[in-house]
C-alpha cells in the first residue's frame, strides 16, 4: 500500500490580500444595508432638491411695474427703456380708469413745475418705487466682482459639508463594526487568520472606497440638478475645484478613518465609545467651520491649507480662486500624506494592542506603550 499523501495547509494570506478581503467585506456589508442605501438616497434628494429649488426660486426677478403715460411730451424720452412697462393712455380719464382698475401701478404725465418735467400719480399712496426708477443715478461699479463673495461662501460650504458628513458617517460605521466584532468575539476568529494591521488597513480601505463613491454620486446628482435647473455656468466653475477636492479628500479621509478605528479598539461597548471618538468628531468638523467663518480671511485660510485636518477643504478653495502659488498645493498635499501615514502607524499600534482586550476601556497611553 502506498502511504497517504500529506495534507497541504493553505498558504497564509499576505498583508495585501488580507486587507483586500477585509475591504471587500466592509463594502459589501454596508452596500447591502438598508440604512446605508436610505441615507444615501436622502442625501442625494436633499442636495439635488436644494439646487433645483435655488435655481427655480432664488434667481427670479420682479416683474417691471406697468405705468400709464399721458401726454408726457418730450419728457417721455427720459423714461427708462427697462424697469418700467409703458402703457400709452389716450387721455387722463383713460389713465385714471386703468389705475383704479389695477391695470397699472401709476400714471406718468407732463408737469411744467417739476425739475424733470414729469409727474407721477398713484392711487392711494405715492408711488415711490416708480419715482426711484425715474431718478437719475451715476454709473455704479465695484473693484471686485460682487458675485465672488457669494460664490466663495457656496464653494466653502459645499466642500466643508461634504467632507464633514462623509468623514463622520463613515467613521461611525468603522466604530460600530469594530465594537460589534469585539463584543461577538468575531475579531478573535479574524485575528487567527490575519494580522490586526491587515484588519485595520482593510477597514480603512473599504470605507475610503465607500466615502469616495458617495462623494462621486453626490457630485453627479449636483451636476445633474445644475443642468436641469439651467445653471450650467455654475457647473462649469465647480468642475476644477471638485477635482482638487477629491485629490485632497483621499488622504484626509484616511487620516480621520484611522483615528476612528483606533478609538473604537479601545472600548468594548457602544455606550463607552462617546468619550474616545468625540475628539475625532470635533477634528472632522474643523474644516467646515474654518472655511465657513474664515473663508474670506487670507491669513487663516493660508494656515488652514497646511493643517492636515483642514487642508482637504482649505487648499482646494484657495486653488479655485487662484490665491495659492503653484508649489503650495504640492507642499500641502505632501504634508497631508505624511500626516496620514503617521496617523495610520499610530492607529495600527493602538489597534493591534487593544483589539483583543475586553471589559474596561484601554487607556491610550497604555495602548501606545505596552507590549503585546
Automatic annotation (TrEMBL):
What are the UniProt keywords, alphabetically? Membrane, Transmembrane, Transmembrane helix
One GO cellular component term, please give it: membrane
Q: Where is the ABC-2 type transporter transmembrane domain?
A: 34-348
* Annotated TM spans: 35-57, 153-175, 204-230, 242-267, 288-309, 329-351
* GO MF: ABC-type transporter activity
Pfam families from the entry?
ABC2_membrane_3 (PF12698)
Q: What is its main location?
A: membrane
* Localization annotation: Membrane
UniProt xrefs under InterPro entries: ABC2_TM (IPR013525)
Keyword Lyase among UniProt keywords: no
Organism name:
Nesterenkonia xinjiangensis
Membrane topology, from the record: Multi-pass membrane protein
Source taxon at top rank: Bacteria
UniProt-recorded name of the protein: ABC-2 type transport system permease protein
